[in-house]
Amino acid sequence: MKIAHYGRLSASKVAPLDHHSVHGAPQEEKRCSFITANSDPVYVAYHDEEWGVPVHEDEMLFELLVLAGAQVGSDWTTILKKRQDFRAAFAGFDAEVVASFTEKQIATISSNLRFDLAKVRGIVDNAKRILEVRKEFGTLDKYIWGFVNNKPIITSYKSCRKIPAKTSKSEAISKDLLRRSFRFVGPTIVHSFMQAAGLTNDHLLHCPSHHSLTN
């Protein structure tokens, strides 16, 4: 799985871990423990090359916010496999284009993706909110990263059981997003987004990705 599959710019990706195989026991022990021998290669590649890597492109931030919400009630592997479909449906997550979607387009997207109609409407509404944020802050990037003083939060968890579903920071971001009328941005979804976009590095201490992202 090449990083180009995800479409990140070079500033928002890391080199794949130097493992001979996705399924070898020694490699699994090094990664975060939620990656197992049964993990789908798509999910493994996402963990190795994307999860926790700082993102500063507005389109990618919008995409990850959408995917973080989409995986609720599903799982990351399923959503990652539909990622290209989401990109095609939502114009590469260009907020200006998505904000102009009509009800007919919304209904078509919901049907084609087999994705909840209310959630599609929420994505379109969020695109409009992003345009408002840009008017105030210049970019979505400046707004979002301002919550962490433009520096990733580095955690030191030794067990996946210790990683919280939400934090005081995700609650604060969620509260402000809701104040701005964003939808589907509860603190748990926001924390998942923070992990995906690299605002927080929640890789376990023993995981090579934790070290590569902090050095």
Q: What do these coordinates show?
A:
This protein has 215 residues and is an all-alpha fold. Helices cover 53% and strands 2% of the residues. The chain has helices spanning 25-30, 41-49, 58-70, 76-81, 83-89, 95-99, 103-113, 117-137, 140-146, 168-179, 187-197, 208-214, and strands at residues 153-154, 200-201. It has a two-stranded parallel ribbon with strand order 1-2. α3 crosses α11 (187-197), α7 (103-113) packs across α8 (117-137) and α10 packs across α11. The longest helix is centred in the middle third of the chain and has 21 residues, at 117-137. It is globular and about 50 Å long. The two termini are 24 Å apart. It holds the Pfam family Adenine_glyco. One of its GO terms (molecular function) is metal ion binding. Keywords: Metal-binding, Zinc. This is DNA-3-methyladenine glycosylase I. Zn(2+) binds at residues 32, 47, 203, 207.
Helical amount = 40-55%
The biggest sheet, with number of strands, parallel, antiparallel or mixed sense and barrel status, is: 2 strands, parallel
Counting DSSP E segments of at least 2 residues, the number of strands comes to 2
Distance between the termini: 24 Å
What percent of residues are in strands?
Answer: under 5%
Shape: globular
Low-confidence stretches: 1-7, 15-28
Number of contiguous helices: 12
Mean pLDDT equals: 89
The helix-and-strand class reads mainly alpha
How are the strands of the largest sheet arranged? 1-2
Radius of gyration: 17 Å
Secondary-structure element sequence?
HHHHHHHHHEHHEH
Organism: Dioscorea zingiberensis
GO molecular function: DNA-3-methyladenine glycosylase activity; metal ion binding
Pfam families: Adenine_glyco
Protein name: DNA-3-methyladenine glycosylase I
